[in-house]
Every structure is written in C-alpha cells, then in structure tokens.
Amino acid sequence: YDAKKIRNFSIIAHIDHGKSTLADRLLESTKTVSERDMTNQLLDNMDLERERGITIKLQAARVLYTAKDGETYCLNLIDTPGHVDFSYEVSRSLAACEGALLVVDASQGIEAQTLANVYLALENDLEVIPVLNKIDLPAAEPERVALEIEETIGLDCSDIVHASAKAGIGIEDILESIVQKVPPPPAATGGPFRALIFDSYYDAYRGVIVFFRVVDGEINTGDKVRFLASAAEHDVSEIGVMQPNQVPTQALRAGEVGYLWGNIKDVLDARVGDTIVLSKEYKLRKADVKNDQEPIEPLPGYADSVPMVYCGLFPVDADDYESLRVALGKLRLNDAALSYEPETSGAMGFGFRCGFLGLLHMDVIQERLQREYDIDLIVTAPSVVYKVQKNEGKEEVIIDAPSKMPDLGRNDVALEPYVKMDILTPSEYNGAIIELGQERRGVLIDIKYLTPTRSTITYEIPLGEVITDFFDQLKSRTQGYASMEYSIIDYRESDLVRLDVKINYENAPALACIVHRDKAQQVGRRLCASLKELIPRQMFKIPIQACIGVKIVASEHINPMRKDVLAKCYGGGKSKFL
Ligand code: GTP
C-alpha cells in the first residue's frame, strides 16, 4: 500500500461516444481480465443496459499498470451512469475520484451531456483529461473537435490523446496520462475512518454490497460499521477490491476503493452519498459531543433521492396483482430511488402508484417488470410532483397524484417544479428550439455561441412540460442534432388546475391530470379525443367530458352502436337504411 501510487478516475462522455468500449480496452490491455473472460462491455453488466446501450448502475474496477517509469500503479476506474436521471449518482462517483477522462467522439464533437458532466467534474475539482475517441472513423475531425474542446471548456488540448477504443489505438497513451496527470489521493488527515458510498446493490446471498472510497483512516474485515445518514449499524463480513470481480482483502486504507458486505438487508441503509464510519470510533467520540451533533463529520454532498415523476402501474390481468407487488419489492431492493404504494381505480382495478427519478428510470422499471417478471401493464400518463401551500404558506401538501390536488382557496397557492435546461444545437435550429421552448412555457435565459455554428440555449422550464415528449419534439425539430440536459432548480408558483375526466357523467380519478390553466382546454380536447378512440361503443350514447371543477372545458361522445349494426344487418349502406 502506497497512496502515492493510487489514481482514482472515472470516464465521462456523452451517450455512445465510447465510454464502455474504452473501459473494456483499459482492462484488457492491462491484463486485468484475461481475454477469455472478456465479454464485451464488462462494466455494463445488466442485460437491459447492454441492449439499450446505456449505463444505469455504477461499477468499479481496479487496474494494475506498470508505467514507463517502471513503477506499478493502482488505477481505480469508477464507472458513471450516462443519463440525466442519475446525475446525483454521477456526482457522487466523481466525488470519489481525483481525475476524469473526458471522452469525446471525434466525429461528433461536444454534446450537452459532455458539458454537464465536465461541469460536475470541475465542481468536484477533478483533473479532466480530454481524449478524442473514434479517430478510426473516416468522418473523424480531430482538429476541429480539439478546438471545440479548447474553446468551450477551456482545457488545454495541445497534447490531446487521439484514440480508438474499438481499434485499440492510443490506449497506452491514455494510461500514461492518467498516471502523470491525475493527482494521487490527498494525504489522510489522521482522523477516524470515513468512506464515501458511490454505489450499492442487493445480492440475494450476501445482502447489500456497498462500493466506497476511503477518505480517511482504515477499515478491516470484522469491523462494525455505521452509515451516518441512515444511522444503521452492521458487522462487516467481507471487504475487498474489484478486479473487476470481487476479491477479498484484509484492510482498506485512505485513498483506496473497495466493497463491503455484511448482512445488510436494505439498500436504504447504505445509500449513495452516505458516509461510512466505524462504530467503535463513533461511540468513542459520542460522549464528547452534544446530543444532536454527529461525533464524526459526514463527508459533504449527501442528498436523499426524491422521486420527481409518478405514474400508475396496473396489471392488465387482475390476477397478476400479487406478482406485481412481489416484483416491485424485488426491484426496490436494488433501487433506493424507486417508491411505490397501492392504488385502486374504478376503471383499472388494483395497482400501484410509483415514483421515479425521471422518465428513463420509469422506462427501465416498466421494461424490467414486463421482461423479467412477465407482467403486462397498463401505465397511466406520468405526472410530476406538485405542491400546494395552504393558509398563506403555513401548511404544505405534496401532490404526487392528480386526484390528490385539492380545490384551491383564495389564500392557497400551487407550485410546480422547474428545471434548468441546457440545449446544445447547430445554430440553424435556434429558431425552432425557441418556438418549442415557448410552447412549453419555458423562460429563455441565455443563448450562447460556442463556435460560429453551434450554440447552447438555456431555459428555465416546468418539469411537467419536459416529461411529455419534449425530447422527441426537440429531436424531430432539429433532425436529431440537438442534445439536452437538465436539472431540477426549484418550485415556482403557477396557475395550476385539476382537470377531471368524466365518462358517462362519472368521475375517473386515475385519468385526472394537473395542467396549467392556459392549457386546460387544449389538453382536455386531446384527452377526450383519444378516449373516444379507446372506449368501445355501447348500445347507448356515452358522453366524455373534461372539467375544471363543475365547468366543462372539452367534450366528446361515443355514438351508440345501433345504427351501424342495423345498417350491416340490412346488408347495405347508410343511405339505403335511411
Ligand atoms: P453509453 O453506455 O450508452 O453511455 O455509451 P458509451 O459511451 O459507453 O458507448 P459505447 O462504448 O457503448 O460505444 C458506442 C458505440 O460506438 C458502439 O457501437 C461502439 O462499438 C462504438 N465505438 C466505441 N469506440 C469506438 C471507436 O473508437 N471507433 C469506432 N468506429 N466505434 C467505436
């Protein structure tokens, strides 16, 4: 153990720029994994991730590399998920590193996600090493892209590595620059043991496996640990390092990256961002501090994950309700950010109302339920979490289902979540994007030209407007060239109303939605029209109405069957019947 020989780094990249391929190549070229064991993209180890080509859960790997100076270095690669929904996880894994490889596709250039991740890395004071990937492609323009990186991010690109993760070009140069440019972990403070959790997952045999970076002190097998935020305590059965398969060790010290497990039953006990300390050191100091004070200072940056998007999940076949409950429970074991509670609906029967970090998170869970647990689902339209302040702000109600939205009194205000959104686009599409932003109640904050032909457009925009096909619209209006990235900023007062749907004069709470008053009519019409298509005809006329309170804002009706059916009986067209 020599902390000076440790380099902790992660790879940041826009989706598809080659992060996983490069990670594979680094493991392969350092013989961390024998070629025989090498399955493609080892770090993305969930099937679904591999199929969709996105990284959802973080993993880590330790690489031993003998550099040109003859010394052997221990490089810890910490993988990061590649999607906006998981930006908190990204920020925590970056906080566990001293450096980051910034992988940019030399045929594409900088994208919104590249920028967002670079800013996260710079906020965490990381040394960012740019790498131009895919230089084997005929369309690669390394000079142009290097200039773009210099001008937009301000990184020195004079000796930027030209690489191809696919063809194995530049891999040695990348390893050398990690050793030379990424600083070793800072010297330990000499204080008690503290480690940052950057990932955890549930294993059926061993319980929760926790991945962490040691910041201070030392941990040994058999120690008892405490997780500061959850206040849970557990005996450690095993600690070890990822090579990338888990290999037990006796001890881990400041600067090292490793895993532990020990009969931890719930991922909520050991959440990403929490600080691990040793119970004995904690107890020893407890006597010296006041009641509400933590005897060991938690590492900065812990945040609870709060679901931002909700939807109802109902089994198509009512007999699947129990299997759905069990399946959600199993998925939750591995996913502290997933929440669910039972919901009943007159129209759809028994189901669950589920909370997710965002749309992708929601998609992934739905798909796993259908694919791994074979449950066919009816999914209600997603909605965001609103708030209502009553009695001039004295009381706050969280609205995670449209049917929970109360009628507002004169002193009540409704609030909705806003995000700050950065869109990167070829400048010719600026107009189209601004039009879209306006349609979605966005507040234009800034337009910047990164280069003469590329711009970033910054909006503050309601999350509720983003989760309904914003991304699809953005792509289709810019022919796929724009990319976007957003993060929640705050809740803002808004003129929101609950739009109820009545079918045959009966309220259908599961179909209600919360909308801005200006859009109520438009949304109501759309809802009524699509319900008209969906609901089968009956023997009698069925009215469908969208209402705000008692006021009807849109209506349709489903014609009775009789005329058509009879027309068919007479074997002729309408005119004949008439
Ligand atoms: P996410 O996991 O979705 O974030 O993507 P990623 O950044 O990990 O990209 P991934 O490694 O999955 O690569 C995306 C695609 O680019 C794959 O089809 C790779 O085969 C291809 N690719 C990666 N590196 C190179 C390269 O150097 N040259 C070429 N031609 N293709 C590459």
Describe this structure in words.
With 578 residues, the protein is an alpha+beta fold. The chain has 15 helices and 32 strands. The strands form six sheets. Strands 11-10-16-7-8-15-12-13 form an eight-stranded antiparallel beta sheet. A six-stranded mixed beta sheet has the order 2-3-1-4-5-6, sandwiched between helices. The longest helix is centred in the last third of the chain and has 15 residues, at 520-534. It is globular, with a radius of gyration of 27 Å. The chain starts with 5 loop residues before the first strand and ends with a helix. 43% of the residues are buried. Mean pLDDT is 86; it is low at 48-58 and 565-578. It binds guanosine-5'-triphosphate (GTP). Residues 13, 15-21, 53-55, 82, 133-134, 136-137, 164-166 line the site of guanosine-5'-triphosphate (GTP). Guanosine-5'-triphosphate binds next to helix 1.
Any key phrases for this structure?
single chain; 578 residues; alpha+beta; 8-stranded antiparallel sheet; 6-stranded mixed sheet; 32 strands; 34% strand; globular; disordered C terminus; binds guanosine-5'-triphosphate
Distance between the termini: 94 Å
Tell me the structural class. Answer: alpha+beta
Bound ligands, each once: guanosine-5'-triphosphate
Question: If helices are DSSP runs of H or I spanning 4 or more residues, what is the number of helices?
Answer: 15
Q: Strand-residue fraction?
A: 25-35%
Segments where pLDDT lies below 50 for 5+ residues? Answer: 48-58, 565-578
How many strands, what sense, and barrel or not for the largest sheet?
Answer: 8 strands, antiparallel
Radius of gyration: 27 Å
Q: How many β-strand stretches?
A: 32
- Helicity range of the residues? 25-40%
Mean pLDDT rating: 86
Widest sheet: strand order?
A: 11-10-16-7-8-15-12-13
Shape, principal axes of CA atoms: globular
